[in-house]
Every structure is written in C-alpha cells, then in structure tokens.
Amino acid sequence: MERPKITLDGNEATAYVAYHVNEVIAIYPITPSSPMGEHADQWAAEGRPNIWGTVPHVVEMQSEGGASGAVHGSLQRGALTTTFTASQGLLLMIPNMYKIAGELNSTVFHVSARTLATHALSIFCDHSDVMATRGTGFALLASNSVQEAMDFALIAQAATLESRVPFLHFFDGFRISHEIQKVEQLTFDDMRAMIDDDLVRAHRERALSPDRPVIRGTAQNPDTFFQAREAANPYYLACPQIVQKAMDKFAELTGRRYHLFDYIGAPDADRVIVMMGSGAETAQETVEYLTERGEKVGVLKVRLYRPFSVEHFIQALPKTVRAIAVLDRVKEPGAAGEPLYLDVVDALEEATSKGIAQFETAPLVIGGRYGLSSKEFTPAMVKGIFDEMTKDNPKNHFTVGIKDDVTHTSIDYDPNFSTEEPSVTRAIFYGLGSDGTVSANKNSIKIIGEETENYAQGYFVYDSRKAGSLTVSHLRFGPKPIYSHYLISRANFVACHQFSFLERYDVLRVAEPGAIFLLNSPYGPDEVWDHLPRTVQRQIIDKKLRFYVIDAYKIAKEVGLGVRINTIMQTCFFSLSDIIPKDEAIKEIKNFIKKTYGKRGEEIVRMNFAAVDRALENLHEVKVPDQVTSTFDMRPPVPDEAPDFVKRVTAEMIAGRGDELPVSAFSPDGTFPTGTTQWEKRNIALEIPEWDPDTCIQCGRCVMSCPHAAIRSKVYSPDLLKDAPPTFKSTDARWRQFKGMRFTIQVSPEDCTGCGVCAHVCPA
Ligand code: SF4
Ligand code: SF4
Q: Of 190, 277, 553, 718, which has the highest C-beta tally within 10 A?
C-alpha cells in the first residue's frame, strides 16, 4: 500500500499517532516535549477527529504532577488517555506512574528524553529522566529515529492494550524530537488495524463504575501487600511476547520489521556495542562502514528495555562475540555501573546459569557513558570504542567524547574518522536567533523532502539564549535513508548569514575542499575580499572554495522586509546548490511563501516574492585572489585583561570550543564565578537606538523592557559633567525630588542586539 511521504520532526510524528488513538490528553509543557502537547491542543481546537471519529479532549493542567494525576483518573474511567513530558516533568509524574502501573492501566506516556538538573540545568538530551522511572512498573520502549518515533507510538499503544502494562515510549530530546526527517506516514487504516477494538472494550469495562462497583486504591498491611504485589508478575512475563507480536503485525502492515533487540553487523562479530536511542543509529552507520571493510563488529539496539527479556537478548547476540561494550546515556554516581550495563551483565550471568548462553567463549563486558546533555556522539567515537575492545585490558566504566583528566575515564578516538557518504549533500547555515534562518531551512527541507526523491534531514543547534544568538542549521539530503544523528563536520555548502560572525566564529572550519561558501555581505564581489579576516581568506584559498556574496539586508530593506533576510538567503541556497532545478525551486519557495505569509495579507506575500526575484539578480560570485592580503584576523573572544577563569573557560565557550575543555576546568559542584557576562561582548546589532533628550519624558520604559539590560538611565549631580566630552548627552531630571540633577540614558552598543524593543515601547 502506498503511504504519503511527509517531512516532519519526532515530536510531531509521535503526537500524530498519540492524538489519533486516544480520547483524553492531559498536558503540561516542558522542553523539548512541549510541541507534542501543542500539536494535540491545536488539532483538538481545529476539531480533528481521532480514528473513532471523536475529537480528543485535551486539558492543560497546572503541573506535570497534575497531568499524570488527570491521566490516572481518566484511565480509571475507561478513557484511552495519554500525556507527553520530559526531564523534571517526568520526575513529577513518578508517584502517579507507580499507581497507574500498580493498577495495570493501559496507557502510553511519550517522553522526549532530557537531562535531569544536577550540578547544572540542561535542556538537552540524555536518559537520566527515563532511567529514573525504571522502578515504576512502566514498560520502557526506545525509538531511535523520527520514523521509529511514529511507528513505536503505535506499537506501544497496541501492546499496552493487550498486556495491560503501561508504556513509556521515549526518544532523544532535540536530536529526534526536533530533528526533521522524511518519513512514511502511518494511515488511519494502519492505526485501526493495530488497535484491537475488543481490547479497547475490555479497557472500558475495567473502568470504575457505579454499575459494576469495585474498590481500587486500598491500603494493605504486612499480611497481604507482598503477595498482592507479586500477583501482577504474569503480566510482565507476557509483555515482551506481546510487544513482539505487535511488532510482527506492524511489519506485515508496513514492511518495517522491528524486534525487542535488533542486531546489525557481521554475523560472526567478535565485538558488539549494546545501546539504545538515536546514538544506536550512528553506531549502525559506523558498523555498516566497518563491516564493508572486513571488520567483525556489530551493534545490538535495545528496543524494549523494560520488561527486560534475557532470552530475547541472548538470542539476538552473535555466538562469536568476545567483547561487549554497553553504552549508557546516563550517569549514576556511586553505582556499580550504569543501568543498561548492569542489566547486560546480569542477563549474561543468568543465561549462563540457565544454560542458554551459547557463546564460543564467555564475552568480556565493559560499560561506558556517552552523550550526556546532547554531547555529540559520532562515528569516530564508535570506532574508538571498537578499537578499545581490541585491547587486552579495555577500560571499563569509560567515558567517550570528553577529556577526563581528573579520574581518567575517557578513551581516545581519532576525530578525523568519518563515514559520511559522498552522495549526501551536507549544508550548514550560520544565522542569528530570530533572523528567520531556521524557519527558512525548515521550509527548504520540506521542499526537498516532499518534492524530490531525496531523503532529507534537518537539525538545528540553538544557543539557549535564543533571540540574538548564533543558530547553526545542519541539513543533509541524499538518495538513501539518513542515519547520521550527529552534527555535520564536513560540509559541501556553508552559508553565513551575518557578516560579523566571520570575526568571531571559525565558520569555514567545516567546509570541505571545493565547497560553496555563501556570505551575506554589505560589500560587493569586488570589495569584500579586503574585509575578510586572514583566517577566512586563508581557508577560502587553501580549500579552493567557490565564494558567493549577496547583500541580503540591503535587498530586504528595499523590498520592505526590514531585517528579514530568510527568503533571500533561501533563494540563494537553491540557486547555488543544484539540488532541484532552479525554476522548480523558485516555484516551491513561492508556494511556501503563500502558505506561510498568506494570512498576513497580500502585501507581505508580494514583498517576499520581490525578495526572491531580487535575490537572483544580486547574487555574485567572487573572484578569489591567490594571496592572503588581509591586515587583521579573528578577534580574541575576550580581552586580555579578563580574569583567568574567563580566559581559560568562558572564552573557549564563547569561541565554540567548549567541547574541548577538560574535566579539570570545572568545579565538581557546579559553582561558577559571577559577573563573567561582562566579558562577553557580542557586537551584533546592525542598528542601535539613539536617545533624544529633548523628547524623552523619562518614563524608564526603555530601561525596563530591554531583554539584555543594555540600556541604563542615571540621575546624577551636574558636577559630574565637568569632564564629560561634548558629545555626552544629558538633560535636567524631571522629578520633583531630583530638582537640579541631570538625567542621562545610555545604550551599551556591544551588548545591544538591535532588537528595537526599547524604541517600540517608547511613548515619546
Ligand atoms: S535595541 Fe533597545 S531593547 Fe533591544 S537590545 Fe538594544 S537597547 Fe535593548
Ligand atoms: S521609553 Fe522613551 S520616553 Fe521613556 S525613558 Fe526611554 S527614551 Fe525616554
């Protein structure tokens, strides 16, 4: 059966299924799961029906604890009910999760896994939240990609109804929740085929009802609690088979076959990595690359982590395995090992004692931590782990991806190792938060994913300071499915949407030889060269880059779009990249403009159309000289007079080299010195507000509203003006209590982002 191919992110893929197979959805937003609740809320508001023709009731509670309590109550009334959450939000659900599981209620919680706050808060991904729930009695099912997030949302729903064990379906926050991929969309027929109406009826019949009165939630004493707790064992024992049955049925419908544990690699592998989450896809890509070159390696993806089936796990491993590395995306300080590692050690031990482990020799097991707080996990690291396993005494309880110079847990790897296929187009775009770069790139992926045969992937790296900060968009397109859930390190297209970035970030570090470099530049093709730092000139020459410039801000201003340069830069990308014929691309960009801006009026659409046409006329190739001629280079991230910590740590973070800082650079309890932001001067404002002392009514609104505290007011004695330069502006203070004093408002140009909020709120 032909199914639509759509381009969307993991949150939307999951919400799409969860919404259509439930009747009640209790939500409370938390990053990175919020879009799942937002989609459900919007679809319900639009009156979209589920697969039974009713519109789910979406209710926003006052906390995640409230959301899970609402789920519990709704389940007890027999409604198909779900929720979405992450991180500390999931922790708040734990008390209700014990109750929901203890009473064998069928439900699926969808979780975009996120780091728990410990020495610091982090909105990024690891599995510490999910692992904190492994004692609740929920089944834990991991999906590793956007397609799997959609597929497993349905498999989990089918399995919970049959097993009565509640499910927590999880996928990596940001990396999958916000990664855009082209996937095959499940249909209503698929959902109807997977959901057994008899099981839905059985779920309803278990509801608390005055018609069939029973008591649930009793208190029990030492005489009975223990036995009653064990009474649920058969449900957990049956659960893995039920999940496999649902996976088999799903495979018959869609052709996508999953198992509780999926092994990929050499049938006679001697080294195997065991892991779950998006990193397993990166391991798969590396394993395929290495096995093609004769290495005996493999990866075992854990799909159903709880209940853990020892038999299925052992059967899935090749008999030839001699060394197993178990990778956990979580740290449990003080534990004998991380959770998955301990399960694997125990499974091997139990299998041996039961006589079902048929290995040629008992495999050595080592455990390691990776990817905490979305730390990159790359094929180079996977290769490093396989290399470690060849040693006589490989490191146990290792870390990979960091430099641990304190307790020396980290293993080495060659960062230059790459599995990137030449058939894949890899494009990187450097933009400024809220300049439209990310939205334009999301549209570009949709255009390529939906209008061509290519597979497409988009991932966006934001600074948590959001507006006015660096955004880096990573886009891949190619003829084969894309498993690369890591950042692009070798790009054949680099676009820099802000000229000032050239002095602050090494934007061309990722450019491959022969790549295209597109720069938004106020300088034309004949003059731009002299305005580039030496490092940039050197890389353009050495890597033989094809260099193009456009003055996108000038065009945006001329057509009435202000500082919105996204449409212009997107047009240039399509014009230069040749992914789809130029005319076709222009047509699609204009279709997206109509879709995106249509409701804002004809004029906005017209301005954007004009921007597209003007972009093509004003894109110029630069004739690259063969000599570095610049008299200046990239500026240091902080001035020389900055304190030691700022120079050693903050400066590296500002320069984008935070990944290279060793463990010893940090305090063990998360303490940081204060006042370090005074050394971080971003200098990104294109326009800076100017204070007019004659019209100012001294209301202070501009000062209060500046999101960056870049505008300050002062009342002071006139004596202090005696050495002021003639250009220094001041006026009489207007307040009665400050009679005879002077008043000044000043903007700090280095901190101002040019957002214009102060001018907008000014009543004068
Ligand atoms: S434009 Fe005004 S509000 Fe915006 S950062 Fe600058 S001073 Fe602050
Ligand atoms: S908002 Fe305008 S009027 Fe009020 S203090 Fe600022 S500049 Fe003056």
A: 277
In the sheet that holds 271-275, the strands lie side by side as 261-265, 297-302, 271-275, 323-328, 364-369, 398-399
**Residue 204 structure tokens:** 């309803």
Q: Ligand 1, closest atom to CA 711? A: 7
The two three-digit tokens of residue 135, written as one number: 């004692």
Question: Which residue from 492, 488, 434, 497 is spatially nearest to 458, judged by alpha carbons?
Answer: 488
Q: Is residue 183 one of the residues assigned to a domain?
A: yes
Q: Which atom of ligand 1 is nearest to the CA of 753?
A: 5
Q: Which amino acid is at 589?
A: I
Q: What is the mean pLDDT of residues 38-51?
A: 98
Angle 256-260-266 from CA coordinates, rounded to 5°: 80
- Average pLDDT for residues 197-222, to the nearest whole number? 96
State the CATH number of the domain containing residue 18.
3.40.50.970
- What are the phi and psi torsion angles at 734 (to 5°)? -85, -15
pLDDT of residue 59: 98
What are the structure tokens assigned to 193, written together?
A: 């085929």
Task: For ligand 1, say whether the CB of 753 is within 6 Å of any of its atoms.
Answer: yes
3-state secondary structure of 739: coil
- The CB of 565 under 6 Å from ligand 1? The reply is no
* CA of 251 relative to ligand 2 center, distance in Å: 65
Q: How confident is the model at residue 409 (pLDDT cuts 50, 70, 90)?
A: very high
Ligand 1: does its nearest atom lie under 6 Å from the Cβ of 247? no
**Cα–Cα distance between 644 and 657 in angstroms, integer?**
17
Burial of 466 (0-12, 13-18, 19+ CB in 10 A): exposed
The answer, yes or no, to whether any atom of ligand 1 lies below 6 A from the CB of 708, is: yes
Residue-level pLDDT at 65: 97
Are 466 and 573 contained in the same domain?
yes
71 and 129 share one domain? yes
Which residues constitute the domain of residue 653?
644-679
760 lines ligand 2 (CB under 6 A): no
Sheet containing 108-113: order of strands: 57-60, 24-27, 81-85, 108-113, 167-172, 139-142, 304-306
Cβ(684) to ligand 1 under 6 A? no
A 10 A CB-CB count for 543 gives 14
Q: How far is the CA of 471 from the centre of ligand 1 (A)?
A: 20
Using the predicted structure, report yes or no on whether residue 464 has a pLDDT greater than 80: no
Give residue 755 CA to ligand 2 midpoint distance, Å: 16
* 758 Cβ inside 6 Å of ligand 1: yes
- Helical packing angle, 34-45 and 10-20, nearest 10°: 50
